[in-house]
């Protein structure tokens, strides 16, 4: 039975000049539990030493509902200040557009201020990839596009993306942008397969967007599957993992990476050994039969 191709050693973000590893590391929980800059630096090194070059954060990472907005960015900024050479070794991505207590704000004034604040916290003059975190229904996409184009033109941002946008919202923003989108960041996992069937990934391929998958392990549910559906998906991933000598987690990442849209899973672990382990996913071989077996388990019903 023919095998699907392995992911390439590197991926280009959209049509930009940014080239990244086929898997990314995310910093949603970087600032948890009072982590020090030295401890955070050890995690950054773990990712880079494993060959992961795309590092993803956001201005709201660290926010606990009452305080902590910007904490993950600020902690990473401390890491850069202590070891300036690290910044050049990565493609740095961050996000903005959420203003606690959760109005979304993509007005020109707020977006411009959010970008400037992220640069200050990160102690960098430029972010490689800046993504709108969630869409603001009250912002006209033409106004948003104008603000983002200005940020790119001024050198504050190299390239642009969106996260959690509908297909229509992506199309609208893309229409008005001069500097076109390079990425889209939806939730995708073997337990969250809507993107595979509702046209989002087809749109990404049509527009040339690289999908960055957040929560690729189903918010941790793959580690402790509770429902019959979750257990069925875990069993299929375990079967593949056992055959190829990798963990269920690695098999889950690899399942996403086998998709022709070039999905880049964002590893959320804050444990160095788990970050390094994730890179094994680039070597997992899939047949169509095995890949679809996971999909059937996720659907909970046979394919038509």
Automatic annotation (TrEMBL):
SUPFAM superfamilies: NAD(P)-linked oxidoreductase. InterPro entries: AKR (IPR020471), AKR_Detox_Biosynth (IPR050523), Aldo/ket_reductase_CS (IPR018170), NAD(P)_OxRdtase_dom_sf (IPR036812), NADP_OxRdtase_dom (IPR023210). Residues 22-291 form the NADP-dependent oxidoreductase domain. Gene3D superfamilies: NADP-dependent oxidoreductase domain. GO terms for molecular function: oxidoreductase activity. GO terms for cellular component: cytosol. Pfam families: Aldo_ket_red (PF00248). This is Aldo/keto reductase.
